[in-house]
Amino acid sequence: MNLVGTWLTDRMDLQLHVYQLKILIRIVKKKYRDFRLQGVLDSTLNSKMYDTVRNRLTLEEATASVREGGMQGISMKDSDEED
């Protein structure tokens, strides 16, 4: 998560391409689900870096939805509903 967070921080002034956004959303959601299933504590999973990445991807998703007209079924919100 630190690697993704650092990568996003380096590109703070650039918007993500829709393809980059879709891939990052899948990576973050899968990482969160897999580690949660393995019994990693919520306090470890919900770190400040995870919150930063999640907030950035949510913002980018909203921007892409307005700009591109939708994300074709991929959303950060899905991971919140599955908890």
Account of the 3D structure:
With 83 residues, this protein is mainly alpha-helical. The protein has one domain (14-81). Helices cover 71% and strands 0% of the residues. It has 5 helices and no strands. The protein has helices at 2-10, 18-37, 42-45, 48-68, 77-81. It is globular, with a radius of gyration of 13 Å. Mean pLDDT is 83; it is low at 79-83.
Task: Jot down its keywords.
83 residues; mainly alpha; 71% helix; disordered C terminus; MUN_dom
The whole-angstrom Rg is 13 Å
State the low-pLDDT regions, or none: 79-83
The general outline is globular
Question: Can you give the mean pLDDT?
Answer: 83
Task: Specify the number of helices.
Answer: 5
Overall domain count: 1
What structural category characterises the helix and strand content?
mainly alpha
**Strand percentage, roughly?**
under 5%
Domain MUN: 1-35
Organism: Knipowitschia caucasica
Protein name: MUN domain-containing protein
Pfam families: MUN (PF06292)
Question: How is this structure best summarized?
Answer:
Pfam families: MUN (PF06292). The chain is mainly α and 83 residues long. 71% of the residues lie in helices and 0% in strands.
